[in-house]
């Protein structure tokens, strides 16, 4: 599998060179200024280092999920009594900071693998560093399809991609036929733009009429205009693409004016729900992509331990980060602290202890399988049958 991905990756280099994806020149200057790290050292290290990239220092949800995984593993003896160490770096700052921090993790911190709880734009930067330095980059947040279309053989993700989410939503939306009126409301951010684009492509491939699409400006000052247009057009079912802040404004407004039969939300609409101390009441009767950790036996145990440790319930950032670190640890235990062997072992992963469900990867590094759905009833998530 690795050889096939590597061959595809070499072909994609042509696109990189022609500007399909760009990285600041200073990133490559930073790369060239470092000497190649000997990642396959024979002496026993004092710690086994794993890198974590987060959007900002304040982004504690994913960090806490990763820290809990490290803590539990070390309590069980780490790797042959050598403890795992999490090295966290923030991509906050000028555009391109994600590249610089990734380079620092590889050469200064000498981590064996990098995990990123990043949006699509910053995940692309980290992925390109992974391609240049030949280190595993595991994405636990970005669902952008183009990340796996670059065919970087060191790239994997635990989060369902935009296409997988679109398929799950569309199958539920149109389960009673193709004549449903469907309206999309989205925000202007990078991730939502690509998610909507993928949703429309999937709908078109299924020969479904193109849904109407309204874009909420970043200022939010056109929300009433959108609601007025929806009222005129008999929106039917509404699909939301945006973060929790967006959802918490648009859902009450839609319900107040009784403008939707059913509201659906992508995974991003609950991106920081429990981590920020907010509740599910706003999402009552809304159908959402599920991260799975609310329902599995391991997920419920994870929630209990997480709340005990950090004082709040984990959202999906935490859950996917927890699974991500545990997969990296599992791979290191199977392959040893050797980057070359880790790459092959990653592609062979069949992780059955995930709090978000069983995890394995396809030939492009995507998580296998479409996500499930849940509906919020009486303030609690319930599996949608």
Instruction: Supply the CATH class of the largest domain.
Output: Alpha Beta
The named CATH superfamily of the largest domain: Response regulator
As a percent range, the share of strand residues is: 15-25%
Give the helix/strand class: alpha/beta
Spatial extent as radius of gyration:
21 Å
Topology of this protein?
Elements: H1 2-17, H2 25-33, E1 48-54, H3 60-75, E2 84-90, H4 97-107, E3 113-116, H5 120-133, E4 136-139, H6 146-149, E5 155-157, H7 162-173, E6 182-186, H8 190-205, E7 212-215, H9 223-233, E8 237-241, H10 244-256, E9 262-265, E10 287-289, H11 297-310, H12 316-335, H13 339-347, E11 350-351, E12 359-360, E13 373-377, E14 380-383
Helix pairs in contact: 3-12, 4-5, 7-8, 12-13
Characterize this entry briefly.
The protein is an alpha/beta fold. The protein has helices at 2-17, 25-33, 60-75, 97-107, 120-133, 146-149, 162-173, 190-205, 223-233, 244-256, 297-310, 316-335, 339-347, and strands at residues 48-54, 84-90, 113-116, 136-139, 155-157, 182-186, 212-215, 237-241, 262-265, 287-289, 350-351, 359-360, 373-377, 380-383. A seven-stranded mixed β-sheet has the order 7-6-8-9-10-13-14. A five-stranded parallel β-sheet has the order 2-1-3-4-5, with helices on both faces.
